[in-house]
Amino acid sequence: MPGGPNKENVPVPVPVNGTLSVVEATRRQLLGKRKRTIDTSEEGDHTDEDGHECDIDAPKKLPNQDRLVGFGRHFGRTVHPFCNLLTLITEGQSRVNELTLRGIGLEDLSPRERRDQNMFKRLINMVPNLEDRLWDQSCNPDEKKYIADMLFKGMKGARTDNTKGLKIAIVEFITPPNGVLRPPLGRSTKNGRGFFHEEVGKYLCPTDYDWTDPSIKQRLRSGQLTPTEHQWPIFLYEGLKFNRDDPWDGLLKGKLVIQGFKHVFTSPSSAEAASLVYIATLIRFSLSNSTAFTLKDPIMKNEGFFTSLLSFLENPEEEEGVNNLLNWWNDLIFPGQTSVGSGQIPQTSALAALYEARRRRRLQDVSQTGN
């Protein structure tokens, strides 16, 4: 798109003999860049700079749309489905410029700024040539708005497709094996869902309430009890069992989360915390009787629930639990392999045995100290 130089785009000295300028090298380090391009094929197989597959539509499926739409779909599913992309891009670029030119470190940013910086870095590394496009001196505000609009179009389209698909599929997910739902539920309507349905309510009930208690059930149905976004539903847990003494036990291993993940991600390269939270948010909405998936739904509080769960998983203090969870998921997707760090480690290897030995030592230390 045409336009004059933008003062937000910091001029970068021309590389000499193929080397990067100090400014550009610093910027690329902040953005986690290791190579300039993202490999793509005509069949629509895409990998980001960490080698993760990008589940985006093939070119032939987007004949009249910018390729940014496909990357927007992937960003919404694996990073954040609700963020304001224009704000993320504009503030992210300004933040990188400030970090680069003033020598400010990431440790000087607020927790929210660090979170936004990480999302911006993920976006830059996901979309081919986006860094060059944004930092080109001809990239004006209209160009940035166009980029954000195309990404948002994909992000919104993915949400719409996934909510429609899961609204239908969830009925099959919760139907007892070789049985029927009583009363039956329509696949294309939300009527009768939520706490008003015995089977649906069993999955949707928050972990701090007892669905078998008739008074709790009645108060949830009447609205006397309205769960907040921080009261997570029991379907997140394996076997619908919440262990208050070990709340990590079974978290995000519930049957519906697994079925929903497989429904949306037909050929994922790996599970990530954000993608699991995205699926949990969609499953929660699909079980509810809310008719429209909106960010500010006063009852479901979809954005608040997503943020609550993701913020917990992204807390550095929960790193060990998150790594164990993601390893469990990746072993579920790729049986026989354990994902530790950035590579896939066969369970039969010496390295996997060393990790397992370390895990056993930690468990032994905990049992001996009583901590």
UniProtKB/TrEMBL annotation:
Q: Which superkingdom does the taxonomy of this entry point to?
A: Eukaryota
Acidic residues bias spans = 40-52
Q: Where is this region: Disordered?
A: 33-61
Q: Pfam families from the xrefs? A: DUF6698 (PF20414)
Q: State the InterPro entries in the record.
A: DUF6698
Protein name, entry field: Uncharacterized protein
